[in-house]
């Protein structure tokens, strides 16, 4: 399997950035087109003005990831919606070869209430999903 185009969904957690190190480790100096995606979960935004702040945070997450991926071709995508749906739909639309993401980003009660984005991406994806374990 030849991997040229990777989708890298990030939630902004330190754990989600472990996926960047995995890409560098696995693919080294390979020519890759990495699409960095951050989805602002709009179903949880109910307070006026929060969307704008969330968009600023999203931009910061995308910029930091792109900086860490210097040397690779990167595309930064910020979206608002439902993370797992947007990840799967984007991967299909852009015909990526692989999705690289971590097992967990959020923790505690929120994970149990909303379900695991990662498991829903695995279930809905038509391309391979590489799950990066938590680093110590």
UniProtKB/TrEMBL annotation:
<dbReference type="Pfam" id="PF00582">
    <property type="entry name" value="Usp"/>
</dbReference>
<dbReference type="InterPro" id="IPR006016">
    <property type="entry name" value="UspA"/>
</dbReference>
<dbReference type="InterPro" id="IPR006015">
    <property type="entry name" value="Universal_stress_UspA"/>
</dbReference>
<feature type="domain" description="UspA">
    <location>
        <begin position="4"/>
        <end position="133"/>
    </location>
</feature>
<comment type="similarity">
    <text>Belongs to the universal stress protein A family.</text>
</comment>
<dbReference type="InterPro" id="IPR014729">
    <property type="entry name" value="Rossmann-like_a/b/a_fold"/>
</dbReference>
<protein>
    <submittedName>
        <fullName>TRAP-T-associated universal stress protein TeaD</fullName>
    </submittedName>
</protein>
